[in-house]
Design brief:
It is a single chain. This protein starts with a helix and ends with a helix. The protein is built from 12 helices and 2 strands. By secondary structure, it is mainly α. Helix content is about 65%, strand content about 5%. The chain has one domain: Lysozyme.
């Protein structure tokens, strides 16, 4: 009987040791798994690769939209010079919520590609932001309508959810960005300067209302443009006589009337 008891005790003790070893092995596996996940999260893309990917994705789209807008701008300039008030012009004025011909030109003239690239790089973290990847939202444009496609930001502003627009393509995002710059009241001074100057380093000084950073935002854009040599991608827009006329009127403090447009 005593021998039987010892045999049973020995079996139980052996089972206990094996069970502990198995638990230890499982715990070790679990620990290893966590460590691997942590390492993946910490991995980063080299900066030069990130920038190269960004240019490959963004530059062709920005150039395409810039060409579209340049053609439109030059067509409207010609129409205004010929004193043509077409349905197209009236629709554009309605779209951009303006009334005068000069305001229309300010709204339609596209600013340099270098400035657009700089803002795109800053707002999307060189094309790596969640908004860029999941919603093609290059410029961090907010959404205020439940009817449009959008995604929620991770953070809240107070107790409110921040929503960002979701675009069908990168090109759609670039088009909407130029449209916002052409119609938002916050960028009125920017548009006025944009009609008179094609220098991105001057224009950035008028974008303090684009970001909560204020004037510092313009300085960061200046550095982004110059350091990354973005100005090499700028395409010239034919200088229109209307720009000289507007400049002259600003210097003499006289309003630009319809007669001035006809005489250009």
């Amino acid at each position: 009987m005593r021998s039987l008891f010892l045999i049973i005790a020995s079996i139980l003790f052996t089972s206990l040791i094996v069970g502990c070893q198995q638990k230890t092995t499982d715990a070790e596996k679990h620990t290893v798994k966590k460590t691997v996940i942590k390492k993946i999260k910490k991995s980063t893309i080299p900066v030069h690769v990130k920038k190269a990917n960004f240019k490959k994705m963004l530059l062709p789209e920005v150039q395409a939209v810039f060409q579209e807008l340049t053609i439109q701008y030059e067509e409207i300039v010609l129409a205004l010079q010929n004193n043509t008030q077409s349905d197209r012009i009236n629709k554009l004025k309605k779209t951009y919520k303006i009334t005068t011909d000069v305001e229309l030109l300010q709204a339609l003239k596209p600013h340099p590609i270098s400035l657009t690239l700089a803002q795109a790089a800053m707002e999307s973290s060189w094309g790596t932001s969640r908004f860029f990847k999941e919603a093609n939202n290059v410029f961090g444009v907010w959404s205020f309508s439940k009817k449009e496609p959008r995604i929620a930001a991770n953070g809240l502003r107070g107790s409110k959810t921040i929503w960002l627009k979701k675009y069908g393509s990168i090109r759609d995002s670039v088009r909407d960005y130029y449209k916002n710059m052409g119609r938002s009241f916050a960028f009125k001074e920017f548009r006025q300067e944009r009609l008179l100057s094609n220098n991105p380093l001057i224009l950035v000084t008028k974008l303090d209302r684009y970001s909560e950073k204020g004037a510092e935002y313009g300085k960061e854009l200046h550095s982004m443009i110059t350091y990354n040599k973005f100005m090499q991608y700028d395409e010239k827009i034919k200088k229109s006589p209307i720009e000289d006329t507007i400049t002259q009127n600003e210097e003499s403090d006289l309003p630009l009337d319809q007669e001035s447009l006809q005489n250009i």
